[in-house]
Amino acid sequence: LVRFGASYQNFSQKEVISGEDKAYYDTALFVTNYNKLGLFAPLATIITESIRYDRYSAFDNALTGKIGLKQYLYDSYYVSANLGTGYNIPTIGQLYGPWSPNPNLEPEKAMTADLTLGNDTLWVTGFYNTIDNLIEYGFPMYTNVAGKSTLKGVEVGYKDYFANLVGVTANYTYLDAKDADNITLARRPEQQVDASVVYYAAENFDLGLNGQYIGERYDAADKQGPQTGRYVLVNFVTNVKVNDTISVYGKVDNITDKYYQTVDGYATAGRSLYLGLNAKY
From CA 109, how far away is CA 134, in angstroms rounded? Predict the structure, then answer.
């Protein structure tokens, strides 16, 4: 199955004080391909490929791609591998925004690889990514981390349903993030756990809890600066489907009113209640 596509994005920043507006755009063409083969029938072999060309008004143009292989071994058990490249331009806020802008930022260039073994319920993934010119927040401005940074680690995922009433998901990530000089990168937790439990009380009504554990994390490189990790957050959410068009939701974030900071000196919200309405046509 081959699909073709195109996209156009325009990014702009209105400068109230200086009166000098900033803008750039991106025009892209892309193609994806999906092949399901019977090389080891009845066990499926799935091969995916994608390629994308981006033409930027303010940065070098980029050609990126990805190739993936998924081989079923027995029943729902499989092994999969992916290899790809990426090109991430700075956001308009990072370049010209009011908080720590740097108009001289360079795009990030990435290579990604992962290997997964598992089934529909439990899986383990090893990943190895390299990023040239990694963009990092700092004071007084955003900067590119010199050279090639490496982010590698392991992820364990779990997802299951019980009695068609309760859905449970959990993910654990171990991350080793280093710059070109083998120094630990700032603001990246070494360990992270995300979990959720959803109770489907009726066809149009559900409620659930989700939580997150952030492990050791430092605000500066080389495990220096204030410690901003080692905390747990718990949230509650409920959804009511009124009809095919309208649904109502409510949520309580940070139920325990935990005080924490993702960046030192920038406080985050305490316990917060939200009520909302979603409509789709």
Answer: 8
